[in-house]
Structures are given as C-alpha cells and as structure tokens.
Amino acid sequence: MNILLIGSGGREHALAWKLAQSPLCDTLFAAPGNPGIAEEAELVVLDVADHAAVLSFCAGHGIGLVVVGPEAPLVDGLGDSLRDAGVPVFGPNRKAAQLEGSKGFTKDMCAAAGIPTAGYKRHDSKASALAGLSDFEPPYVIKADGLAAGKGVIIADTREEAEAAIGDMFGGGFGDAGASVVIEEFMTGEEASFFALTDGKDVVAFGSAQDHKRVGDGDTGPNTGGMGAYSPAPVLTEALQTEVMERIIKPTVAHMAAQGMPYSGVLFAGLMLTEQGPRLIEYNARFGDPECQVLMMRFNGDLAALMLAVATGKLAEAEAPTFSSDTALTVVMAANGYPGTPERGGTISLEKVMEAKVFHAGTTERDGRLVASGGRVLNVTATGGNVTEAKRVAYAAVDAIDFPTGFCRRDIGWREAEREAQGDCHTNHD
Ligand code: AMP
Ligand code: GLY
C-alpha cells in the first residue's frame, strides 16, 4: 500500500518514521514534508487546500491511506473529499473536526453528553460578552471560538484585562476565530493529555503525555505550541485513565455518532485533573506536537495497519495498541525569537548526536546544509527507564547539537523528575 502523509512538522516526522517501518507500507509520500521526513518518504509538492489536486495525486499514485497530520486541512474538509472519493483517510470529517475547530461546539457537546468540563457561556457579540463576565469570578477564561493557532485562550486576572481581551477578540485581533467567544469557569489542577483512537464506533486508548507550553524555564514567559513533552504521564493513573475513557472519551464518540457526524481518527483530550476528578479542557482532532513524537517512540505496533483500521471502520478487528513501558521525553530546540518572530536561516549540525532520535520540526536545506526555517526547529527525543533517565539522554544529545541561533528549555520533565527524586513515582501505565 502507498501512503500519503500531509504535514511538515516534528509530529509528521515522527509519524513518517513509524509509518515507514510498517510492512504494509510500500511507498510513503509526504506533502510537503521536511529534510528529516525526506529520510523516510518521497516528498511531493501538493496544495492541500486544492482537494481535487490531492484526489488526483491519490488516484495517480495508488494511495491506499492518507494520514492528515495538522488540524487545518481537517477543519477545511479534506477528510470529506477523500472519503467521498473512496480514499481511506486517517482524520475526521469537517463536521466532526469541529471538536477542535469550535470551542463553543465542544462545550455544547459536553453539556449535551454530560461530560465533565468547566461551566461556560457562549457569546456572539461584544456587548453580550462584556455583560456575561458578571456570570464568572476572576480569573476569567476567555476563548476565541475558532482556530487561532494556539493563541485564542486568554486567562485574565482582572475584569479590566478580561474586557480588553473581549474587545480584542471582537475587534478582529484573532481574525474570524474571535467572531464568537466562550467565557468559562477557571479550573485548577495539573494538566495532562490523553489520546484515543476511534473509527466512529469503537475506541481504544492510545497513551498519555504531559507537555510544557511556556517558552521559559520554570514555566515562565509566553505560551508556545509546546517546548517539550514526555510520555507516559504517570499522574494519569490507570484508574484515572479508565475514568477518562468512560466519562469523557466514550460519551463523546457515542454522542458524535448519534448526531450523524461520527468522529474518526485520533481524539487528543487536554485534561485538568481537578479535585473533583478529570475534566476536559479541550479536544484536538489530531496528534499533539510534540506529544506525538514521544508517543511514537513508545508505540510498539504497526502504525499503518492501525491507522488503516481506524480509517476503514475496522478498529474492532485490529490488534490492540501496545506501548513500551519506558518513558520517552522530547526537548524542543527553537530558533531565537520564538514564539515571536523566529530567526530563520541559522545553520544546524547533527553529526555528533549519538543516542537520541532527532525529529525535524522546522528545518530546510540550503546549499546542501541544514538550516532553521521555523519557530520550533528540532525535537530531540530519547527514552529511558523513567523521566530522569530519558531527560539525561535527551539533554546529552541537545548538547551535542551545533545550532548557535537556537535555544531550548533546560527543565523539560521537571515536575515528574522532582517526584522521582522524592521517590514518589507511580508505575508507567499505558
Ligand atoms: P486550550 O487551548 O483550550 O487548551 O487552552 C490553553 C491553556 O489554557 C490550557 O492548556 C490551560 O492551561 C488553560 N486553560 C484553558 N481553559 C481553562 C480553564 N477553564 N481553566 C483553567 N485553565 C484553562
Ligand atoms: N502541544 C500541544 C498541541 O499540539 O496542541
């Protein structure tokens, strides 16, 4: 079977690496890919917004499975176009992708299906949102409804800041994403990510992870797409994972199917582990980046076979996913300036890296040399018996990389490493 992978980041490099290992995979194509992905796949130039062009590529190259990495093509309906043409696709249709594409849609779904999440109200006008602040206590959580490249959530400590955020959203500061907003109750607890695969009917757990969203050590500075992650997340104990499956994931899948928009692909649940139990913060309709990189390091099975089973509604017949009991940890090396304007063109040398796997996130080749081309540039990924061990190997590799215009956090995994140092560690579960 030939496979087409869509995307160009570290998540897609990790998927390409795993897909290429599958005995089912004949030729792997990637559009547009990156220099790391080029080691696993044949890169192709395709405008993924041009669905007819993607279909024509699939027909011309005997594509038996399309794997969509990022959310934008899913929210744009690429899944629908491929399914309508009979091409198996890993990733939901447009309506189901609203679980990521519209925060209000997801909150309404939670309310209808009885899924634990923060209390909320939706507002379609600035006046209504400003008045609606009175329904909540500070800190105020204000979310642009649509896709906002991870920047659409404002946590405001004061009413003035909340009013300014609402003004900004309705003033077009978040593009179309801010034409509607959700205001919700502030939740406290530790955050963790949980992944599940579903073909619309059946569901299987697909691992846990924790990431580090802030740019600076000690969780300081602005939010980013993620500066590092590790898997599994021992805070998501086996009992909590069962609770998440039963109270959050399975009711979502059942509700979406009952509403005539079955969800097929990976469901990435961002969770808050509150004193009242796990609550949903948000859903994503794709793998996390860099969470995918650590999941792929631990996944033991045949990714192409599993994704094909999801895409063709045969998850019940597929081999249950299994993961190594090791911990995987990834450190993001970013270009100076990220998450603002990253410095592009800085040279990178990976020659001295020994033990770790380096996924390319934002690289390109210029005059035969590897250079930085994005904000997040490399994902330096290692495994070990626990977070402390995986962290040691990952940072040894970071130190062996020559990337003078790049930086990274030095404390990825700190929370878990501290617990391990105190001897307060759970066993690995997923
Ligand atoms: P989201 O894009 O919805 O994941 O939100 C980004 C981040 O904002 C989350 O990872 C949380 O740290 C925070 N956040 C979102 N919603 C809430 C909430 N209701 N209470 C507390 N923190 C939240
Ligand atoms: N690392 C967070 C995300 O992919 O949404």
In short:
With 430 residues, this protein is α+β, with helices and mostly antiparallel strands. It has helices at residues 10-20, 51-60, 72-75, 78-84, 98-101, 103-113, 126-132, 159-170, 238-258, 291-298, 303-311, 387-400, 414-421; strands at residues 2-7, 28-32, 42-43, 63-68, 89-90, 120-123, 140-144, 153-156, 181-184, 190-198, 203-211, 214-216, 220-223, 228-231, 265-274, 277-284, 327-335, 357-360, 363-366, 369-372, 376-384, 406-407.
Describe the fold and architecture.
This protein is of the alpha+beta class and 430 residues long. Helix content is 29%, strand content 27%. The chain has 13 helices and 22 strands. The strands form 5 sheets. Strands 10, 11, 14, 15, 16, 17, 18, 21 and 22 form a 9-stranded antiparallel beta sheet that branches. It has a 5-stranded parallel beta sheet with strand order 3-2-1-4-5, with helices on both faces. Strand 15 and strand 16 (277-284) form a beta hairpin. Helix 1 (10-20) packs parallel to helix 10 (291-298). It is globular and about 55 Å long. The protein starts with a strand and ends in a 9-residue tail after the last helix. The chain binds adenosine monophosphate and glycine (GLY). Residues 118, 141, 153, 184-187, 191, 213, 270, 281-282 line the site of adenosine monophosphate.
